[in-house]
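[step 3/7] fold_predict: job queued, chain A
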Amino acid sequence: MSDRNARWGDLLSRALAGDGVAYATFLTETSEVIRRVVRARSPGGAEDIEDIVQEVLLAIHTKRHTWRRGEPVSPWLWAITRYKTTDAFRRRKWRATLPIEDFAEILPEDGAGDITAPRDLERLLGGIDARSARIVRAVGLDGESAGDVGARLGMSEGAVRVAYHRAMTRLKQLAEMDGTE
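[step 4/7] structure written:
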């Protein structure tokens, strides 16, 4: 784990235990990095960038309980940043490309990761209907487009997107009930 990851992990752990000073330090340090990431990806001006940074920080605040102690903070932080930035770009009808090299430090190494994850995923997928499970596998795991999946299953692209969203919501509910989230 990098020094920055260890520091942020310590700050966030202390913040989750109620240390306000640690939380303020965590947000201050991470906001600078988030701001640089958003600025590098954004075609917008300073106001747009700051709006997006604030959206990311608000999401971090509301989702801080989802970070797992002992896990690196950066992948969790970058996921929130990526999703919130992408959402903001969509609302503004911007397109962004994110070079994979920018995420090399946070991508898992070959062979790394939770070896129980595939088993947990299969168990969760077994808890939803077969068509929804096929859609999740095709779109979410195999990276197929909703249009391609829809053509194969005799559904419109929009119907596939709706079914995928509903299936993901159901999987989240199952994972929360199971404690695998």
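[step 5/7] annotate
The mean pLDDT is 82.
Residues 20-41 form the longest helix (22 residues).
exit 0
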